[in-house]
Specification:
Blueprint lengths: L2 H21 L4 E5 L8 E8 L4 E7 L1 H12 L8 H22 L8 E2 L3 E4 L13 E7 L4 E7 L1
Antiparallel strand pairs: 1-6, 2-3, 2-4, 2-5, 3-7, 6-7
């Protein structure tokens, strides 16, 4: 397994662990996401290191609403837009922090930016330099999330 594939495993496992720990919802890595598209809501965080990177967690609003309700105990119908955005930002932050603890390659030991939200499905993110993208889908019967790491 090369360094990029290893990062894909680390970030995917970190997200699944974070979701399972804070919501008791267990997601399985279902497949590689070939289309690399974004969903309605995307949590983003820049990772600063020798090689750098950007973490994206993207999902449809009902999936984040369900996870927010599972995490907080707030009934789904009472979860607000702010609650959804806070939840997604927290997932990005916790996933990056969890992955940071697992990465041993000195080129990818990173400092985290603040997480932020991008809204809209028709989002295109382009990089000025040659980059690699790792993209996976994690899901179960109720929830589907995509995780992307560009480095």
């Amino acid at each position: 397994m090369n360094a990029i594939e290893n990062l894909g495993v680390i970030f995917t496992d970190a997200l699944a662990e974070v979701i399972g720990t804070v919501t008791s919802v267990h997601l399985q890595s279902a497949q590689v996401d070939e289309d690399a598209g974004f969903e309605e809501l995307t949590g983003v965080m820049s990772l600063y290191s020798k090689k750098g990177g950007t973490l994206f967690i993207t999902a449809k609003e009902p999936a984040i609403r369900f996870l927010c309700s599972s995490m907080t105990g707030i009934p789904e119908e009472e979860v607000t837009g702010d609650d959804i955005e806070d939840t997604l930002c927290e997932f990005v932050n916790m996933t990056a922090g969890n992955a940071k603890l697992r990465i041993s390659d000195p080129d990818y030991i990173f400092t985290l930016s603040l997480p932020f939200i991008v809204k809209g499905k028709d989002v295109t993110i382009d990089s000025k330099r040659k980059s690699h993208m790792i993209s996976r889908i994690l899901k179960n019967e109720e929830v589907s999330l995509k995780i992307k790491f560009v480095c």
